[in-house]
Amino acid sequence: MKFRIVANGAVFAVTLSLGATFVAGAASRTEASNSVKSVGGAGFSVLQTIRIENERPTGYVRALFEHWRDIDGDGCDAREQVLKRDSVTLPQVDPYKCKVIAGDWVSPYDGARWSDPTDIDIDHVVALKEAWDSGAWAWSAATRNAYANDTTDRRTLLAVTDNVNQQKSDRDPSNWVPPLKSNLCTYLGNWISVKARWNLSMDQSEWGRIKNLLNSSCAGLVIAPWSEAPLMGTMRTPPTATSPTATVPKTTATSPTATVPKTTATSPTATVPKTTATSPTATSPASVGVSVYPGAWCKPEGATGVYTNGKSYVCAKTNASGVAYSDGRARWRQG
Questions:
Q1: Residue 248 half-sphere exposure, CB side, CA atoms within 13 Å?
Q2: What is the reported pTM?
Q3: pLDDT in tens, 147-185
Q4: Alpha carbon of 73 to those of 98, 107, 302, 330: distances in Å?
Q5: Which CA distances in Å does 223 have to 23, 124, 267?
Q6: What is the C-alpha separation between 180 and 112, in angstroms, rounded?
Protein backbone atom coordinates (compact mmCIF):
# COMPACT_ATOMS: atom_id res chain seq x y z
CA MET A 1 0.00 0.00 0.00
CA LYS A 2 1.41 3.41 -0.95
CA PHE A 3 0.75 6.81 0.58
CA ARG A 4 1.68 10.16 -0.91
CA ILE A 5 2.87 12.73 1.62
CA VAL A 6 3.67 16.34 0.84
CA ALA A 7 6.12 18.22 3.04
CA ASN A 8 7.44 21.65 2.12
CA GLY A 9 6.62 21.10 -1.52
CA ALA A 10 8.30 17.70 -1.82
CA VAL A 11 6.35 14.51 -2.48
CA PHE A 12 7.33 11.30 -0.72
CA ALA A 13 6.01 7.82 -1.42
CA VAL A 14 5.67 5.46 1.48
CA THR A 15 4.95 1.78 0.89
CA LEU A 16 3.46 -0.46 3.53
CA SER A 17 3.03 -4.19 3.34
CA LEU A 18 -0.08 -5.35 5.12
CA GLY A 19 -1.42 -8.84 5.46
CA ALA A 20 -5.04 -7.78 5.26
CA THR A 21 -7.67 -7.07 2.65
CA PHE A 22 -9.64 -3.84 2.92
CA VAL A 23 -13.21 -3.91 1.73
CA ALA A 24 -15.08 -0.74 0.80
CA GLY A 25 -17.40 0.22 3.60
CA ALA A 26 -15.46 -1.55 6.34
CA ALA A 27 -14.83 0.48 9.50
CA SER A 28 -11.66 2.58 9.45
CA ARG A 29 -9.62 3.52 12.50
CA THR A 30 -11.64 6.68 12.97
CA GLU A 31 -14.81 4.61 12.85
CA ALA A 32 -13.69 2.14 15.49
CA SER A 33 -15.79 2.08 18.61
CA ASN A 34 -15.98 0.05 21.78
CA SER A 35 -19.73 0.64 21.91
CA VAL A 36 -22.22 -2.13 21.35
CA LYS A 37 -23.36 -2.34 17.74
CA SER A 38 -27.00 -1.51 17.16
CA VAL A 39 -29.03 -3.68 14.84
CA GLY A 40 -29.76 -2.23 11.40
CA GLY A 41 -32.14 -4.05 9.09
CA ALA A 42 -34.73 -3.32 6.45
CA GLY A 43 -35.05 0.39 5.77
CA PHE A 44 -38.74 0.54 6.56
CA SER A 45 -38.27 -1.41 9.80
CA VAL A 46 -35.64 1.03 11.02
CA LEU A 47 -37.80 3.97 9.92
CA GLN A 48 -40.64 2.67 12.10
CA THR A 49 -38.43 2.98 15.21
CA ILE A 50 -38.08 6.76 14.76
CA ARG A 51 -40.41 9.07 16.69
CA ILE A 52 -42.75 11.34 14.75
CA GLU A 53 -42.85 14.76 16.41
CA ASN A 54 -43.24 18.38 15.44
CA GLU A 55 -39.93 20.15 15.04
CA ARG A 56 -38.70 22.79 17.47
CA PRO A 57 -37.52 25.46 14.99
CA THR A 58 -36.34 28.09 17.50
CA GLY A 59 -33.07 28.77 19.27
CA TYR A 60 -30.66 27.36 16.67
CA VAL A 61 -27.29 29.09 16.32
CA ARG A 62 -24.59 27.41 14.25
CA ALA A 63 -21.95 28.35 16.84
CA LEU A 64 -23.64 25.94 19.27
CA PHE A 65 -22.05 23.14 17.23
CA GLU A 66 -18.25 23.57 17.28
CA HIS A 67 -17.38 21.79 14.06
CA TRP A 68 -14.12 20.84 12.39
CA ARG A 69 -12.42 19.98 15.64
CA ASP A 70 -9.93 17.23 16.38
CA ILE A 71 -12.01 15.49 19.02
CA ASP A 72 -10.22 12.13 18.83
CA GLY A 73 -6.76 13.64 19.36
CA ASP A 74 -5.05 12.23 16.27
CA GLY A 75 -3.92 15.63 15.00
CA CYS A 76 -6.49 15.87 12.19
CA ASP A 77 -9.75 17.74 12.44
CA ALA A 78 -12.98 16.14 11.22
CA ARG A 79 -12.93 17.85 7.82
CA GLU A 80 -9.42 16.62 7.00
CA GLN A 81 -10.29 13.13 8.21
CA VAL A 82 -13.28 12.93 5.88
CA LEU A 83 -11.25 14.32 2.95
CA LYS A 84 -8.64 11.61 3.50
CA ARG A 85 -11.25 8.89 3.97
CA ASP A 86 -13.39 9.74 0.94
CA SER A 87 -10.61 10.30 -1.61
CA VAL A 88 -10.73 7.45 -4.15
CA THR A 89 -6.96 7.70 -4.58
CA LEU A 90 -4.23 8.18 -2.02
CA PRO A 91 -4.48 11.83 -0.93
CA GLN A 92 -1.54 14.20 -0.65
CA VAL A 93 -1.28 15.31 2.97
CA ASP A 94 0.93 17.84 4.73
CA PRO A 95 2.04 15.76 7.74
CA TYR A 96 2.86 18.79 9.87
CA LYS A 97 -0.63 20.26 9.88
CA CYS A 98 -2.63 17.27 8.68
CA LYS A 99 -3.80 19.35 5.75
CA VAL A 100 -5.11 17.55 2.67
CA ILE A 101 -3.52 19.22 -0.37
CA ALA A 102 -4.88 17.09 -3.18
CA GLY A 103 -6.84 13.93 -3.84
CA ASP A 104 -9.62 12.56 -6.02
CA TRP A 105 -13.20 12.78 -4.87
CA VAL A 106 -16.43 11.63 -6.48
CA SER A 107 -19.38 13.48 -4.99
CA PRO A 108 -22.15 10.97 -4.17
CA TYR A 109 -24.84 13.62 -4.62
CA ASP A 110 -24.12 14.52 -8.27
CA GLY A 111 -21.33 12.19 -9.46
CA ALA A 112 -18.91 15.07 -10.12
CA ARG A 113 -15.18 14.41 -9.78
CA TRP A 114 -12.83 16.83 -8.03
CA SER A 115 -9.11 16.94 -7.26
CA ASP A 116 -8.96 20.27 -5.41
CA PRO A 117 -10.24 20.03 -1.81
CA THR A 118 -11.48 23.63 -2.00
CA ASP A 119 -14.22 22.35 -4.35
CA ILE A 120 -15.40 19.98 -1.63
CA ASP A 121 -17.79 20.63 1.25
CA ILE A 122 -18.09 18.20 4.12
CA ASP A 123 -21.82 17.69 4.42
CA HIS A 124 -23.62 16.85 7.64
CA VAL A 125 -26.11 14.43 6.06
CA VAL A 126 -28.61 15.50 8.69
CA ALA A 127 -27.77 19.20 8.81
CA LEU A 128 -26.94 20.84 12.12
CA LYS A 129 -30.13 22.90 12.14
CA GLU A 130 -32.23 19.87 11.21
CA ALA A 131 -30.60 17.97 14.06
CA TRP A 132 -31.32 20.87 16.44
CA ASP A 133 -34.98 21.03 15.41
CA SER A 134 -35.28 17.24 15.79
CA GLY A 135 -33.92 16.89 19.32
CA ALA A 136 -30.36 18.24 19.51
CA TRP A 137 -31.75 21.31 21.28
CA ALA A 138 -31.82 19.09 24.37
CA TRP A 139 -28.20 17.92 24.09
CA SER A 140 -25.25 18.98 26.18
CA ALA A 141 -22.55 21.06 24.48
CA ALA A 142 -20.27 18.00 24.45
CA THR A 143 -22.87 15.93 22.61
CA ARG A 144 -23.45 18.68 20.05
CA ASN A 145 -19.72 18.88 19.38
CA ALA A 146 -19.47 15.10 19.09
CA TYR A 147 -22.24 15.13 16.49
CA ALA A 148 -20.73 18.03 14.53
CA ASN A 149 -17.40 16.18 14.23
CA ASP A 150 -18.62 12.58 14.09
CA THR A 151 -16.27 10.33 12.15
CA THR A 152 -17.24 7.24 14.14
CA ASP A 153 -19.83 6.38 11.47
CA ARG A 154 -19.11 7.36 7.87
CA ARG A 155 -22.79 8.07 7.17
CA THR A 156 -22.81 11.23 9.32
CA LEU A 157 -20.31 13.26 7.24
CA LEU A 158 -19.68 13.05 3.48
CA ALA A 159 -17.36 14.84 1.03
CA VAL A 160 -19.61 16.37 -1.65
CA THR A 161 -19.61 19.08 -4.32
CA ASP A 162 -19.72 22.42 -2.54
CA ASN A 163 -22.50 24.11 -4.51
CA VAL A 164 -24.71 21.00 -4.34
CA ASN A 165 -24.30 20.98 -0.59
CA GLN A 166 -25.31 24.63 -0.51
CA GLN A 167 -28.44 23.78 -2.51
CA LYS A 168 -29.28 21.06 0.00
CA SER A 169 -28.73 23.45 2.92
CA ASP A 170 -30.69 22.24 5.97
CA ARG A 171 -33.55 20.63 4.07
CA ASP A 172 -34.83 17.14 4.84
CA PRO A 173 -35.88 14.52 2.22
CA SER A 174 -39.38 15.99 2.00
CA ASN A 175 -37.78 19.01 0.31
CA TRP A 176 -34.51 17.75 -1.17
CA VAL A 177 -32.94 14.53 -2.44
CA PRO A 178 -29.70 14.15 -4.40
CA PRO A 179 -29.89 15.01 -8.12
CA LEU A 180 -28.02 11.77 -8.88
CA LYS A 181 -30.92 9.31 -8.90
CA SER A 182 -28.68 6.29 -8.42
CA ASN A 183 -27.72 7.68 -5.00
CA LEU A 184 -31.30 8.07 -3.74
CA CYS A 185 -31.56 4.84 -1.78
CA THR A 186 -28.10 5.21 -0.26
CA TYR A 187 -28.98 8.75 0.78
CA LEU A 188 -32.23 7.66 2.40
CA GLY A 189 -30.43 4.87 4.22
CA ASN A 190 -27.82 7.34 5.51
CA TRP A 191 -30.52 9.76 6.64
CA ILE A 192 -32.51 7.09 8.48
CA SER A 193 -29.41 5.64 10.16
CA VAL A 194 -28.20 9.03 11.41
CA LYS A 195 -31.62 9.90 12.81
CA ALA A 196 -31.98 6.50 14.47
CA ARG A 197 -28.42 6.39 15.82
CA TRP A 198 -28.63 9.83 17.41
CA ASN A 199 -32.24 9.34 18.57
CA LEU A 200 -33.51 12.27 16.53
CA SER A 201 -37.16 12.58 15.61
CA MET A 202 -38.85 13.19 12.25
CA ASP A 203 -41.80 15.41 11.52
CA GLN A 204 -44.84 13.97 9.76
CA SER A 205 -44.00 15.24 6.26
CA GLU A 206 -40.40 14.04 6.49
CA TRP A 207 -41.36 10.58 7.75
CA GLY A 208 -44.17 10.23 5.21
CA ARG A 209 -42.00 11.30 2.27
CA ILE A 210 -39.26 8.83 3.21
CA LYS A 211 -41.84 6.06 3.59
CA ASN A 212 -43.23 6.80 0.13
CA LEU A 213 -39.76 6.86 -1.44
CA LEU A 214 -38.89 3.54 0.20
CA ASN A 215 -42.07 1.97 -1.14
CA SER A 216 -41.70 3.37 -4.65
CA SER A 217 -37.94 3.27 -5.25
CA CYS A 218 -36.05 1.56 -2.43
CA ALA A 219 -38.18 -1.34 -1.23
CA GLY A 220 -35.14 -3.58 -0.85
CA LEU A 221 -33.07 -1.08 1.15
CA VAL A 222 -31.10 -2.68 3.98
CA ILE A 223 -29.41 -0.44 6.54
CA ALA A 224 -26.11 -1.61 8.04
CA PRO A 225 -25.72 -1.69 11.84
CA TRP A 226 -24.09 1.24 13.63
CA SER A 227 -22.12 1.78 16.81
CA GLU A 228 -23.69 3.57 19.75
CA ALA A 229 -23.63 7.34 19.26
CA PRO A 230 -21.18 9.16 21.56
CA LEU A 231 -23.81 10.95 23.65
CA MET A 232 -21.79 12.88 26.23
CA GLY A 233 -23.52 12.94 29.60
CA THR A 234 -27.07 13.83 30.51
CA MET A 235 -28.87 15.91 27.92
CA ARG A 236 -29.41 19.37 29.36
CA THR A 237 -30.99 22.69 28.53
CA PRO A 238 -30.95 25.92 30.54
CA PRO A 239 -33.34 25.63 33.53
CA THR A 240 -36.87 26.25 32.32
CA ALA A 241 -40.36 25.96 33.75
CA THR A 242 -40.39 22.17 33.64
CA SER A 243 -41.23 21.88 37.35
CA PRO A 244 -44.87 22.12 38.39
CA THR A 245 -43.81 24.61 41.10
CA ALA A 246 -41.76 26.71 38.69
CA THR A 247 -44.89 28.39 37.33
CA VAL A 248 -45.06 30.75 40.30
CA PRO A 249 -43.46 34.13 39.44
CA LYS A 250 -40.95 35.12 42.09
CA THR A 251 -42.32 38.64 42.35
CA THR A 252 -46.00 37.74 42.68
CA ALA A 253 -47.16 36.21 45.93
CA THR A 254 -50.81 36.23 44.84
CA SER A 255 -50.33 33.73 42.03
CA PRO A 256 -53.12 31.11 42.03
CA THR A 257 -50.46 28.42 41.68
CA ALA A 258 -48.60 29.42 44.84
CA THR A 259 -47.94 26.22 46.77
CA VAL A 260 -47.14 27.73 50.16
CA PRO A 261 -49.91 29.31 52.28
CA LYS A 262 -49.43 32.01 54.93
CA THR A 263 -46.84 34.11 53.09
CA THR A 264 -46.59 37.83 52.53
CA ALA A 265 -46.43 39.77 49.30
CA THR A 266 -43.07 41.24 50.22
CA SER A 267 -41.18 37.96 50.45
CA PRO A 268 -39.29 37.09 47.20
CA THR A 269 -39.18 33.46 48.27
CA ALA A 270 -42.75 33.24 49.48
CA THR A 271 -43.52 30.24 47.30
CA VAL A 272 -40.60 28.16 48.51
CA PRO A 273 -40.87 26.05 51.66
CA LYS A 274 -37.86 25.70 53.96
CA THR A 275 -35.26 27.35 51.70
CA THR A 276 -33.24 30.52 51.83
CA ALA A 277 -33.66 33.48 49.54
CA THR A 278 -30.15 32.95 48.15
CA SER A 279 -30.84 29.54 46.63
CA PRO A 280 -31.02 29.85 42.79
CA THR A 281 -32.96 26.58 42.53
CA ALA A 282 -35.31 27.24 45.39
CA THR A 283 -38.45 26.89 43.28
CA SER A 284 -37.43 23.70 41.52
CA PRO A 285 -36.68 20.09 42.45
CA ALA A 286 -33.16 18.64 42.31
CA SER A 287 -33.67 17.59 38.71
CA VAL A 288 -33.92 21.17 37.40
CA GLY A 289 -32.08 21.56 34.09
CA VAL A 290 -32.51 17.94 33.05
CA SER A 291 -34.31 17.95 29.74
CA VAL A 292 -36.85 15.16 29.86
CA TYR A 293 -37.42 13.97 26.30
CA PRO A 294 -39.89 11.05 26.43
CA GLY A 295 -38.40 7.94 24.82
CA ALA A 296 -34.92 9.45 24.45
CA TRP A 297 -31.78 7.73 25.75
CA CYS A 298 -30.63 9.15 29.06
CA LYS A 299 -27.98 9.06 31.75
CA PRO A 300 -27.57 8.28 34.58
CA GLU A 301 -30.00 5.46 35.23
CA GLY A 302 -32.36 6.46 38.02
CA ALA A 303 -32.36 10.18 37.19
CA THR A 304 -35.76 11.84 37.41
CA GLY A 305 -37.29 14.89 35.81
CA VAL A 306 -40.55 16.56 34.89
CA TYR A 307 -41.74 17.00 31.31
CA THR A 308 -43.35 20.22 30.09
CA ASN A 309 -46.79 18.68 30.57
CA GLY A 310 -46.08 18.35 34.31
CA LYS A 311 -45.72 14.54 34.29
CA SER A 312 -42.82 12.91 36.12
CA TYR A 313 -40.31 10.78 34.20
CA VAL A 314 -37.51 8.44 35.24
CA CYS A 315 -34.37 7.33 33.39
CA ALA A 316 -34.73 3.52 33.32
CA LYS A 317 -33.67 0.43 31.39
CA THR A 318 -37.12 -1.13 31.75
CA ASN A 319 -40.57 0.00 30.73
CA ALA A 320 -43.32 0.75 33.22
CA SER A 321 -44.18 -2.97 33.31
CA GLY A 322 -40.63 -3.92 34.28
CA VAL A 323 -39.70 -5.37 30.88
CA ALA A 324 -36.11 -4.55 29.88
CA TYR A 325 -35.57 -2.60 26.65
CA SER A 326 -34.05 -4.79 23.94
CA ASP A 327 -30.99 -2.58 23.42
CA GLY A 328 -30.12 -2.52 27.13
CA ARG A 329 -30.06 1.29 27.24
CA ALA A 330 -31.84 3.61 29.63
CA ARG A 331 -34.67 5.79 28.32
CA TRP A 332 -36.97 8.44 29.74
CA ARG A 333 -40.32 6.95 30.67
CA GLN A 334 -43.13 7.93 32.97
CA GLY A 335 -42.56 6.79 36.48
A1: 23
A2: 0.63
A3: 999 999 999 999 999 999 999 999 999 999 999 999 999
A4: 12, 27, 32, 29
A5: 17, 18, 60
A6: 10
